Amino acid sequence: MKKGKIYQSLSGFYDVLCDDKIYRTRARGNFRKKKITPIVGDDVEFQMTNENEGYLLKILPRRNSLVRPPIANIDQALLVTSAVEPDFSYNLLDRQLVSLEINNIKPIIYFTKLDLLSDDKIAYFEKIQQDYEQIGYQTILPGNLSHDDLNHLLVNLLKDKETVFMGQTGAGKSTLLNTISPGLKLQTGEISKVLNRGKHTTRKVSLMEVNGGLVADTPGFSSYDVLNIDAQDLRNYFPEFKRNANECKFRGCVHINEPSCKIKQLLSSGLIEQTRYDNYLSLYNIIKNRKPIYNKK
Ligand SMILES: Nc1nc2c(ncn2[C@@H]2O[C@H](COP(=O)(O)OP(=O)(O)OP(=O)(O)O)[C@@H](O)[C@H]2O)c(=O)[nH]1
Ligand SMILES: [Zn+2]
């Protein structure tokens, strides 16, 4: 029996890295019976039947996992967020942040394509950056850093971590990875060649070694992760709401219609951003109004 980590999954095969070697495995029927689907990032136990083929015995407990993109045991997510082409969306960013907060994965917001903007528009993004820093999120606006500082930052950021690169199609995930690690030669707009196993469709997620850590480039998403929480718990995934909620009059305050709500006071004095509050309300209503099937895990 060997232990390793799933690097990629492709047509029913799972490529597992163990002692610097890749082993091709399959999942046995007992996984299907138990409705367990192995995903990239899973730590597994496996056995080889011959040199070329083996099977998975067990998936070790996951620290966390995401559905879109399907990946497990992640330390942090780099949210590649473009200013234009595709246009910046507060709603999309907040939705991604909530999804990561629910899964207990640290987000880092990385802005791209500011080089395509005029100076007044750049100021607008500097304000966005400040707002999210204020909430407590790490943000990176590459144009404000020297080449060396940016490199240094990215090396330290990825080292010894498992990082997932997320963002809309065309936001610049592969371009950024190529900048960090030119040896990868990722085709922009197309998911990578990893471990020389040939071409994959952009539907695939796979892990690569970059700067002493593991990175997953992921396809741009076309639909959202279902937020698997109750509406009244959403407030806990907006950090600036959570840390002030003990000053609301009511303990269970969801910051909508309750009197003496600290969050609404902070909103009117401009200390909580209107866009954050609006996105909170819209997500709250989506969760509240969805079909009961999604209500509980
Ligand atoms: N001007 C400018 N162009 C960029 C920047 N980052 C990416 N691009 C361009 O944007 C396009 C899309 O970039 P990709 O790296 O393929 O985007 P992606 O996020 O990997 O897209 P998918 O793989 O489809 O999810 C390419 O033509 C890049 O050259 C940037 O910071 N500035
Ligand atoms: Zn409140």
Automatic annotation (TrEMBL):
Domain EngC GTPase: 72-222
Domain annotation CP-type G: ranges: 63-224
Keyword Mitochondrion part of the UniProt annotation: no
Main subcellular location: cytoplasm
Pfam families in alphabetical order: RsgA_GTPase, RsgA_N
SUPFAM superfamilies: Nucleic acid-binding proteins (SSF50249), P-loop containing nucleoside triphosphate hydrolases (SSF52540)
Cofactor(s) needed: Zn(2+)
Listed EC numbers: 3.6.1.-
Residues the record lists as binding GTP: 112-115, 167-175
Keyword set includes Endoplasmic reticulum: no
Domain of life: Bacteria
Sequence positions that bind Zn(2+): 248, 253, 255, 261
Transmembrane segments: none
First-tier enzyme category under EC: hydrolase
Cofactor note: Binds 1 zinc ion per subunit.
InterPro entries tied to this protein: G_CP_dom, NA-bd_OB-fold, P-loop_NTPase, Ribosome_biogen_GTPase_RsgA, RsgA_GTPase_dom, RsgA_N
Binding partners and assembly: Monomer. Associates with 30S ribosomal subunit, binds 16S rRNA.
HAMAP family, per database record: GTPase_RsgA
NCBIfam families: ribosome small subunit-dependent GTPase A (TIGR00157)
Family: Belongs to the TRAFAC class YlqF/YawG GTPase family. RsgA subfamily.
Physiological role: One of several proteins that assist in the late maturation steps of the functional core of the 30S ribosomal subunit. Helps release RbfA from mature subunits. May play a role in the assembly of ribosomal proteins into the subunit. Circularly permuted GTPase that catalyzes slow GTP hydrolysis, GTPase activity is stimulated by the 30S ribosomal subunit.
Protein name (Swiss-Prot/TrEMBL): Small ribosomal subunit biogenesis GTPase RsgA
Organism of origin: Apilactobacillus xinyiensis
Lineage: Bacteria, Bacillati, Bacillota, Bacilli, Lactobacillales
